[in-house]
Amino acid sequence: MRILTILVAAATALGTSAHAAPADTRPPNAPDQRPAFPGQTRAPKPDRATAVTLTPVAQGLQNSWGMAFLPDGRILVTEKAGALRIVSTDGKPGRPVGGVPEVAFGGQGGLLDVALGPEFATDRMIFLSFSERRARGTNGTSVARGRLVETGDMARLEAVEVIFRQEPAWTNQLHFGSRLVFAPDGKLFVTVGERSDRETRVQAQDLSSGLGKVFRINPDGTIPPDNPFVARAGALPSIWSYGHRNMQSAALDRQGRLWTVEHGPRGGDELNRPQAGLNYGWPEVTYGLEYSGARMGRGLTQREGTEQPAYYWDPVIAPSGMALYSGTLFPDWRDAFLVGGLATQDLVVLRMKDDRVVGEERIPVGARVRDVRMGPDGAVYLLTEQDRGGSRILRLTPN
Questions:
Q1: Which of 32, 106, 172, 363 is the most exposed place for a label (fewest CB within 10 A)?
Q2: What is the model's pTM?
């Protein structure tokens, strides 16, 4: 396969100056809005950018959405139409894995994220998020688990069961989320969307609704007794945090804490560290505008009782996929968050200090980046979307 080399600069990044230009110099959609604290948006780019090489490692995929490394280096990859494939170490996608639940494919819906269970080495359990058909033409985000069984070149899921269903169901094909992240204690975080429409997005503030939330459940779907709303009458006990829009990026930091990036509308993509029981504001508080350019609600960017994002973007990057970099190939990226940019067609590198973004770098990819993972070799792997629905996996290494 042809190797694509991107020479962003002559040397790897050596630092970030507080007086450097931001990574994004496009005019904001909402120039009258002001950040709540210095560095909350448009963090400086590095003094010297990172030179990288992008090497295609797998092609022939279609409408792929999520990926996860198996212990032997092979990669599980989802395709929105409902296929789960195992990509071999030489880059060949295998036949669809059998036993995958039926999905409601269309729009933003279909087979979405994939994650290995915390005891995969012994029980071979994998977890899938997907949009599921419901009664009377509705649909919603669900999570299923099943045991991966391989015989020769054939693979299937056995003992498949749905362990989580987002309610209420809705009729459109928008804002399903969804990422799956296992915490160090074995609990499963599930991110979802609020289904976009005016009738549904307000339910992100409603604790009796499963729209616009981060959920925390046990691997069997039961509810951890220390969840924040277990004892509150009328609240869903599976909720961890609320007031979110559409979270398609999620990862743990080095301390094992959950971070997410959610889509804003016209502006207002947000990096958050969702904490138990806290309200992140949507749709009443946002740095975004309606797609028409009108203000969102009362146009509030701050309100008592809601949390500020650790960082936001205006204009948007359209985030999807996220990983913490903990390898050695890119020493300047150590403990940085790597976020896929759909709209910007790049990899967004967020350098962190004391839970704040102190630098942002853009690595051009030339395709929509749907998912990001660090491989066992310390390289960064990008799942990209090409023209006409084609997808491929790229390996990113220092140049």
A1: 32
A2: 0.95
